[in-house]
Design goal:
Elements lengths: L1 E9 L5 H17 L3 E9 L3 E8 L2 H8 L2 H13 E10 L6 H10 L4 E4 L2
Antiparallel strand pairs: 1-3, 1-4, 2-3, 4-5
Helix pairs in contact: 1-3
């Protein structure tokens, strides 16, 4: 199984509604996607959110990430986010929100995207 976790920092509070609406559409898409095991928005603050998803295979995860609302979110990421932190890895553990936050800020494998 593969686990993907992310942290999204919005540029401004006024983008909260757009982000949450798009996140809900992505969640619904993921729940219907082949190979999805679990997906959830872990919360955060008004401008800082954590997400987690689990996949049967890295191929299933990659196929999902390049389609539908997720593809739209990638295209809009520069407009909505000031920073995105991402990591995916093989595993089957259940991660707490605290573990997700720690990993996204301390693990050397994390990919950090910064936007002006």
């Amino acid at each position: 199984m593969f686990i993907a976790i992310g942290n999204f920092k919005l540029k401004e509070k006024k983008q909260l509604f757009q982000f949450l609406r798009l996140s809900k559409k992505i969640e619904q898409q993921a729940l219907k996607a082949a190979g999805n095991v679990e997906v959830k928005l872990l919360g955060g603050s008004l401008t800082n959110f954590y997400v987690l998803s689990k996949w049967e295979s890295v191929e299933a995860m990659q196929n999902f990430s390049r389609t539908g609302f997720h593809k739209e979110a990638i295209a809009r990421s520069k407009d909505l986010s000031s920073e995105i932190r991402l990591i995916y890895f093989e595993g089957d553990q259940d991660l707490t929100k605290k573990e997700v936050k720690t990993m996204l800020h301390e693990d050397e494998r994390v990919r950090v995207l910064k936007f002006n």
